[in-house]
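Page 37, continued from 36.
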């Protein structure tokens, strides 16, 4: 199997195990439902950051593609960490959802904006 596929399956399986363990702890009365949600969605943010960290380690055929990979990696890592941090530190779940999803959307916008900017500069030249 491909190393990236194994890593992705490990993250997916890990989050499933974490969700089941948090659900069991909630059913046994150790934690409440809000804490369960925060644990699972915080781990999802860490997964986004991990995937962003792996992006520059993949093959890119040109210098322009490597630059786009670096910008994408930075935006994914930072937005994933903000997403995870929002679920750890935000006072309410709704605030965490708005801040976390906003950070991920902003990271995607930065990536798309950067990828479209060289195309616009090339058309202008």
């Amino acid at each position: 199997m491909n190393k990236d596929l194994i890593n992705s399956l490990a993250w997916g399986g890990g989050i499933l195990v974490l969700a089941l363990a948090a659900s069991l702890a909630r059913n046994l009365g150790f934690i409440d439902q809000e804490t369960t949600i925060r644990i699972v969605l915080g781990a999802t943010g860490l997964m986004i950051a991990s995937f962003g960290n792996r992006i520059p380690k993949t093959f890119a055929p040109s210098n322009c593609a490597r630059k786009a990979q670096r910008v994408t990696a930075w935006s994914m890592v930072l937005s994933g960490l903000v997403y995870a941090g929002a679920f750890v530190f935000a006072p309410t779940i709704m605030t965490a959802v708005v801040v976390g999803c906003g950070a991920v959307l902003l990271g995607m916008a930065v990536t798309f904006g950067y990828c479209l900017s060289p195309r616009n500069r090339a058309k202008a030249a």
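Residues 93-124 form the longest helix (32 residues). Flag for discussion at group meeting. The helical segments are 3-27, 33-54, 63-89, 93-124.
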